[in-house]
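the two lines:
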Amino acid sequence: MPDKAPWITFRPELRVLDCTIRDGGLINDSQFTDDQLKAIYHAGVAAGLDYMEVGYKNSPQQFPADKYGPTRHCEEEYLRKIVGDHKAQAPALKLVAMADAGGKSDWQRQIIPAKESVLSMIRVACYATQISEAVEMIHHCHEQGYETTLNLMAVSVLQEAEIDTVLQLAAQTPAAAVVVVDSFGNLYREQIDHLVRKYAKAVEGTSKDVGIHAHNNLQLAFANTIEAIILGCNRVDATLMGLGRGAGNCPMELLLGFLRNPKFKLRPILEVIQNTILPMKKQFDWGPSIPYNLTGQMNMHPRTAMSFRAGPTPDDYIAFYDRVMADV
Amino acid sequence: MPDKAPWITFRPELRVLDCTIRDGGLINDSQFTDDQLKAIYHAGVAAGLDYMEVGYKNSPQQFPADKYGPTRHCEEEYLRKIVGDHKAQAPALKLVAMADAGGKSDWQRQIIPAKESVLSMIRVACYATQISEAVEMIHHCHEQGYETTLNLMAVSVLQEAEIDTVLQLAAQTPAAAVVVVDSFGNLYREQIDHLVRKYAKAVEGTSKDVGIHAHNNLQLAFANTIEAIILGCNRVDATLMGLGRGAGNCPMELLLGFLRNPKFKLRPILEVIQNTILPMKKQFDWGPSIPYNLTGQMNMHPRTAMSFRAGPTPDDYIAFYDRVMADV
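prediction for all of em together
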């Protein structure tokens, strides 16, 4: 007999974040209808999720409202139109926006005090070379009363010393978590292990959590999320039906089926998938397919595959393979 | 820096088996055209695969030829029509058939001496209660000159003592490998670990390999295969584009992208997928979808989900969920 069966119990401190609206917004320029957003929001409340990322705090100059939908900017007035007086009605679900470093957000002006907002957390996303601005952003958001995280993107193309420096700086901020972000969907299990252990070590003694944000290029988003959980990650990202850029994300319906915390309910998730997310499949391409497999295997940004999948021969795998192989 | 990066090297003794024709035959009653079979076969040769399972040695009485295609019976004459004088032309690829215990095969009569056949290996599949017949079958096939394996099916519904008994008997046979078979696509990483370690321990000192055959209900077939490989499994099953019953199998294109043995070639695999397997998607349903997720999570045979997916409302996830939840 095995000594124990950890797969039938649960860890109460593990918190689930739905980033369907934020990451899914990368495939439709955040052009969700109000009804779609409301359906996703209410499903998250009913399912007992801990966090829902409802969009970006993107700069309206760089991401103009005539091209991008309102969840790119997460203006308070618009959010309240969708979620109402959220903190009074459904405080168990914390709402979140992502703010990018590198000039994509106008964070000094866009982020109002948390007590005036339906939002409770700002996740600061940066590339390694943007860490100095990201640290400033974390301090600013913290002072405004938000919980914060640091999401270091594209970690699979960084060197050890770069990651170490970022983590050392992040450890000194008030961020509540540092998140392992496999932007290119490139990492295999042993690499996830290596990174999760590294992140955990870097924040040891600070009470910060480690998080995981996986992409599904190699059909490993869910598996890598499980792996991170086994190693102690307590902040876990997923999206409805894996909706997200390129190959998409860890599917929420698989994650909730795996977690054994009875507070999470699967049925509202299946309902919103069936009624709101599945119909989007007719319009948009996401989820693992061979072009995304290949960019994942080759540790490339998915943009080449996205543009190929949007072209006239999305299933000409050989043409895509020959093209990317010619580039290496 | 990590001590080592095992994900960039390879293990020469790891052998890959393609079971597209055998497992895929469960979704089309093995009604492949000769051209489809030839394309799959030639792709396997060109890709440098080690084994290809070309069908079942099913009893022609129970699986009559007017309903089931010829790869259910793997008659020598038919196989030679597809693969020619295989052992002379492409000896690096060993051809395989599966024989079920429990009366599904007529193994005493159907299995001709290996030296007269294009086949080199017979995989004996059984449920736990059929192990006595399976042991007889292994001996018989071994005496006929075949390499053999024991594939104990539906391991996720067995008790420890049952698995132990099967393994103890299997360890005494001439089988070259015992295979961990997750028929219902139910197992998570820690359960795979537990089983692979148990199988390895049971065959310690016998020179037998441990194998892995994973199903993709939870999008974990590839991940669980990687996990088994990390733990030392040297016999690995996959299928083209995951073609296989229900949620399908570990996708060969992902597996070969992961393995770093330069003898394996990805391009011929992508070519046969694009030209031969992808067109089958118009006719047949396979691959992970929510009904298969749910039977996987609930450790059920996929047949309920297969029949639902073949019905009038394959995407009424809520109806399927309510039905299976009412049954538990």
